[in-house]
Amino acid sequence: MYGVSARPFLLFAASERDPSVDGLDAVAGMGQRLLGVGPASGRARGSRAGSPPTENFPGEQGRSVRLALDIGQSLGRTVRVIDLSRPGDDQALANQYAQGEPLLPLLVAPSGRRLEGLDSFVPAQLKKFFQAG
Prior knowledge:
Blueprint: E1 9-13, H1 22-35, H2 59-74, E2 79-83, H3 91-97, E3 106-108, E4 114-116, H4 123-132
Parallel strand pairs: 1-2
Antiparallel strand pairs: 1-3, 3-4
Helix pairs in contact: 2-4
């Protein structure tokens, strides 16, 4: 187990999905897993490998996610982006921190503090939140 300061900030958002491509995504993902390859680009900066690309998040939510990633990165913070529409391996984290219908986006600090909703995702508040750890 590692200390609170070593854990990443968790950033929850929900992507828009086109139901007509779900089957194609599943087939492509299966092929990539079998071959051990995947897309090299499209990862959100400051997030771990495999995180959803920020382009998947709609409108103001997408802008807020990109802003949080940029500010977090500029302050040396690690941010793990979790798409609530497709949590995959992060389902347990989604269940723990984003139960019910949280205001999105939702940023959770390693200490458990939360920053929720579009109105909170402004540069000054994000910077203060990241600095507090």
